Amino acid sequence: MSTARDPREALPTILHSPVRLAILGALRHVQAADFGDLQRSLEITTAELSRQLGVLHREELIEIKKVQRHRHTITRARLSEQGRSRFEDYLAELHRVAFGP
Asked: How far apart are CA 18 and CA 31, in angstroms?
């Protein structure tokens, strides 16, 4: 009987959502991104992006900041240090699941 752990168990389910993966992937390569820029690049509704950012924020994967720009409040999102680390670990585990050790 095998006691080896199934490598899929190491993949946190919070990151499996295609939209959340796309958000984290987009934030992985920038310091921060404006809500509108994320919405346009991901081609999702305002409500869906807001909901998914809320999930990621509650999980402490991203930080959200409101900034003033020319009399408008802009929502900016960035990967938290913990979020960056967890996302990199997730990608490494996903690679192991898909391609083996």
From this structure: 21
Structure tokens at 30: 């920038």
∠ Cα 56 58 90 (to 5°): 45
Is the four-CA dihedral 87, 88, 92, 98 of positive or negative sign?
A: positive
Report the alpha-carbon distance of residue 84 to residue 7 in Å, rounded. Answer: 21
Which pTM does this prediction carry? 0.85
Phi, psi (degrees; rounded to nearest 5) at 56: -65, -35
What is the C-alpha to C-alpha distance for residues 91 and 101, in angstroms, rounded to an integer? 13
3, 92 Cβ separation under 8 angstroms: no
Length of the chain: 101
Q: State whether the Cα torsion 34-40-42-48 is positive or negative.
A: positive
C-alpha distances (whole Å) from 80 to each of 6, 34, 42, 87 are: 28, 15, 20, 10
For 43-78, write each residue's pLDDT tens digit: 999 999 999 999 999 999 999 999 998 889 999 999
